[in-house]
Amino acid sequence: MWGVLSSFRSDVLSNPELQKLLADNPWIVPVAWVLGGIALGWLIEKALLGYLQRLVKRTKRKTDTAIISALHGLPWIWCMLGGMDAAIDAMNLRPRLDTILVNSIVGLVILTITVGVARLVTNLTSLYSGHSDGRFPSTSILRNLAAIVVYLLGFLVILQTLGISITPVLTALGVGGLAVALALQDTLANLFAGLQIIASGQVKVGDYIKLATGEEGYVTDIGWRHTMVRGLSNNMFVLPNSKLATTVTTNYYQPEQELSVVINLGVAYDSDLEKVERVTIEVAREVMQQVQGGVPTHAPFIRYNEFGGSSINFSVILRGKEFTDQYLIKHEFIKRLTARYRREGINIPFPIHTVYMHQPEQLK
To answer: E strand or H helix at 229, and its extent?
Structure first.
């Protein structure tokens, strides 16, 4: 780009009349280069990138979308910096000042390239995680780590380009990193706990978990220090990564999302248990087929398990597609089973306690 701008500049400035005008007004050329660079960048941003964005929307290729998104806002900055470089060259500044300004522009170019690469890496991380079947979860900790690595490499490239030796910088970072590690032990413990959670795959974003302390909900993000969990009340609670890594946790999405839905019932002692089993299973199959969240391929069954105080107790085992489906399944099953029992004459007894009163003889 800079070669094209320099060639264009030499052709235009060969006009004698223009040379006289520029000699009387030396500020025109630098301002023209800067404004020209901004105009060219705006044109590329609006025309070229706008066209590519429309094209990507039609093709729906997510990789192309990630690339275009990473470039947003950068072409006009690059063109503006190119115009500033040409303007500095046209002003015939002192060599020392010229060198400082040119190096500053080069540093800004590398910085903007670093920003673009960091955006691209972050976008590709999110994109890949969405197609990895949970093997590579999309969490803020991974996206931030990827961006930090890119920014650190870009910073070292800028120093090397400016002629600053990076060896002392790396040494200082090593010594400073030890001091920071000692000062931020809790933060680093949560950081590495978060990385361990992600690497193990035992808890992922989107899973429904329940802690031994009673908190439960959907995991929405695993960050530097905390794991964000959204409860069924739609409230968020913040869980330190180190606590999640050490506490007993039930994951209702592992090894699969489907779960058994157990409903405990009881019928009167004089009931025909064969009929009770048949009617109950018919209602359970109907619920599995018709209620949202039920698993149609599941064959419900019941198990008698106790002679209770006023009833013969049993459990009905249904199946839901995920944790929250059990509430609607239980709701519909209880309604339909109660209505069916009434039609079939099956009695669900009230709790009964027989009390024997002993009247002692009066003392004489």
So the answer is: strand 226-230
Residue 152, SS3 per DSSP: helix
Backbone angles phi, psi at 316, to 5 degrees: -105, 130
Residue 360 DSSP code: P
19 and 107 belong to one structural domain: yes
- Checking if the pLDDT of 264 tops 90, the result is yes
Q: Number of structural domains, the chain? A: 3
- Smallest CA-to-CA distance from 113 within 145, 144, 158, 80 is with 158
Say if 210 falls within a structural domain: yes
How far apart (Å, rounded) are the C-alpha atoms in residues 226 and 90? 54
Give the H/E segment covering residue 337. Answer: helix 325-344
Q: Is the pLDDT of residue 207 over 80?
A: yes
- CB count, 10 Å around CB of 352? 10
What single letter denotes the amino acid at residue 273? L
Indicate whether this model's pTM tops 0.85. Answer: no
Q: Does 273 map to a domain?
A: yes
Q: Lowest mean pLDDT of 2-16, 59-73, 116-130, 242-256, name the range.
A: 2-16
Residue type, 118: A
Domain with residue 339: its CATH number is 3.30.70.100
Strand (E) or helix (H) holding 259 = strand 259-267
Categorize the per-residue pLDDT at 196 as very low, low, confident or very high, splitting at 50, 70 and 90. confident
> 109, 142, 172 — which closes off a domain?
172
